[in-house]
Design brief:
Length: about 300
């Protein structure tokens, strides 16, 4: 029922040219993890959970030890959150900016020790010493990986606040969602309480396909522009999910990278018009766009010199 698998790694799936661009696992990668865990974790019993980083655990009651002895019945996605249904309790995970999920056929029996290791949580799904399971790890010094143990995913505040799921959004809903909004379009698309699932990388891809400026005012799009935006959201995400589902993990990172048209490609030619892909940096992130395809040749001001995007 559960074919043997070697160590498999999910998570930050792109190695961009700049360190702060596009490392975040987004909806297609989360969908691939869900698919994988449904095949390899559902039907197994949680025998032990090791919390290595207490900072990652966001709930105290029920205790994580209540997961022990429970069968994994299903795995779902809520926006960019993972949800393992463990027979009345849910293990909910947000991988944040640099989170990873590693699956192993055999996990070490000895409990891991807290330290400088990127390991945050280990979940055993079989007898100690011969059990498969997975590790949740997080690279870097800025830690954001979060884990909740709850009776219902709705108890997780960020999930309760999620907007409609991007892949399921119809044209009328998108029009209503954008109506009257004064924020820049890039901001609206990546605000999870407005629209869930789109992150920095795939919003860049959507805007490029839709031929829309990241700085466009969301509530001022024409009906034709909303049509293009809706079609781009559906096609970009559907294509990315299709390419991600079922791939061997060694190919998952490369597949995402090869499938991106503008994100993480600063200085390279646009695959549509051959203009040079440009970048706007703000805070600790950046986004990319094509001037010819999206802004009528205009170069957008960088946040290092402007306040256009928050």
């Amino acid at each position: 029922m559960h074919p043997a698998v070697r160590c498999r790694v999910f998570g930050a799936a792109i190695a961009p040219r700049r360190a702060h661009t596009g490392r975040v696992p987004e909806l297609p990668e989360i969908a691939a993890i869900v698919h994988f865990l449904r095949e390899h974790a559902v039907g197994r019993t949680v025998t032990r959970v090791d919390i290595v980083s207490l900072a990652a655990l966001k709930t105290a009651s029920p205790p994580w030890t209540e997961l022990h002895g429970r069968e994994v019945r299903d795995v779902e996605r809520h926006g960019k959150f993972l949800d393992l249904d463990c027979g009345g309790l849910h293990l909910v995970v947000h991988l944040a900016r640099a989170g990873w999920l590693r699956w192993a056929d055999t996990l070490p029996a000895a409990p891991p020790r807290p330290g400088r290791s990127p390991l945050a949580v280990r979940v055993h799904l079989g007898p100690p010493g011969s059990d498969p399971g997975f590790d949740l790890t997080e690279a870097g010094t800025r830690k954001g990986l979060a884990v909740w143990v709850v009776h219902s995913p709705a108890e997780v505040p960020p999930i309760a606040q999620l907007g409609p799921d991007a892949p399921g959004l119809d044209r009328a809903q998108l029009g209503e969602l954008l109506s009257g909004r004064t924020e820049r379009l890039k901001t609206v698309l990546t605000t999870q309480s407005v629209l869930s699932g789109l992150g920095n990388a795939y919003s860049d891809e959507v805007l490029h396909v839709a031929r829309l400026s990241p700085f466009a005012t969301a509530g001022r799009l024409t009906e034709i522009e909303i049509d293009r935006l809706h079609e781009a959201i559906q096609t970009v995400l559907a294509d990315a999910v299709h390419r991600s589902i079922g791939l061997e993990v060694a190919r998952l990172k490369g597949e995402k990278r090869s499938g991106l048209r503008v994100h993480g490609r600063t200085g390279l030619p646009c695959p549509v018009c051959a203009d040079t892909i440009r970048e706007v940096s703000f805070s600790d992130r950046a986004f990319q766009y094509c001037p010819t395809c999206q802004t009528n040749g205009k170069l957008l001001a960088d946040r290092r010199r402007s306040k256009f995007i928050k």
